[in-house]
Amino acid sequence: MENSNENSKVKLFQSLTVLAMLGTVLVGAMVISEVKGYRFIGGGVSATNTISVSGEGEVFAAPDIANISFTVREEAKKVSDAQDKVTAKVKTALAGIRKQGVADKDIKTQNYSSYPKYEWQEGTVSCLGLNCPPYRPGKQVIVEYEVSQTVNIKVRDLEKVNAIVDGLATAGVTEMQGPNFAIDDEDGLKAEARKIAIEKARAKAEVLARDLGVTLVRVVSFSEGGYYPMYARATSVGMEKAMDSSVGVPEIPQGEEKITSNVTVTYEIR
User: Fold this and answer.
1) pLDDT of the chain, 270 residues: tens digit per residue
2) CATH of region 47-64+183-236+253-270, choose from 3.40.50.2000, 3.30.420.40, 3.40.50.620, 3.30.110.170
3) Which CATH class is domain 67-182?
4) Where in the chain do CATH 3.30.110.170 domains reside?
5) Where in the chain are all domains bearing CATH 3.30.70.2970?
6) Interatomic CA distance for residues 191 and 227, integer angstroms
């Protein structure tokens, strides 16, 4: 009889233990579900209470480099003769450029081309009576070759720009583009303008939040637009006019430009 009671107690204890374990698992699952739901509602969806503000940053700077491109183009019956003419003029131009202090790292050939120029030549035809063909035979014939070389240079000493332009004209280059003034480290100025714009937007958001009686929580979106200037530039120069001594060396203003950054920042509030 005692053994039977003991067995009953053991079975009862085991049943209660199983029920307790099942209850614990069920409660745990409910808690996890609630936590997941709370996390989704509070953090997974887009913030519904927001304010958007904008800011503009401005940086003024004068250009510190000038980019100049020149082309030498020659024609001749033989391609080698045209190449020799181009090489001679380019060497003369580069010698003058280096004399003005332009380093080799700032001199780069952009393009070198050589191609034949054709002409249509009609052949002769013999005809008797009404047996003349409706067209004259002929063929494309190479009459000469054109060779050209385009070189880009970066001038870091802007006081030498006028002298370099005059030297290129004297060297007999065919065409010249520039000088185009620019800033060598423009990315740094863009970053500076952006930083100013963000600071202004943040200050505006803090004032607005204080007036509304709310608190800024976090940034939920950011966008940027900006105007990055086209610096002063000279138009393409015809070298025939530039070589006229009566024209003189042109005075090329460099000017100062403004770099701006416009940002829009959206904050979550509570």
Assistant:
1) 555 555 665 566 566 666 666 666 565 556 455 544 433 334 455 668 999 999 999 999 999 999 999 999 999 999 999 999 999 999 999 999 999 999 999 999 999 999 999 998 887 767 766 667 667 778 889 999 999 999 999 999 999 999 999 999 999 999 999 999 989 988 999 999 999 999 999 999 999 999 999 999 999 999 998 766 655 444 455 555 444 544 455 566 667 788 999 999 999 999
2) 3.30.110.170
3) alpha beta
4) 47-64+183-236+253-270
5) 67-182
6) 13
Buried b (16+ CB within 10 A) or exposed e, 125-158: eeeeeeeeeeeeeeeeeeeebbbbbbbbbbbeeb
Residue 100 CA to residue 20 CA, distance in Å, equals 93
What's the pTM? 0.62
CB 60 within 8 A of CB 258: yes
Place of tokens 């019956």: 77
Report which secondary-structure segment, H or E, holds 258.
strand 257-269
Q: Measuring CA to CA, how many Å separate 2 from each of 5, 7, 11, 70?
A: 5, 9, 14, 115
- What whole-number distance in Å separates Cα of residue 18 and Cα of residue 115? 93
Structure tokens given for 246: 């009566």
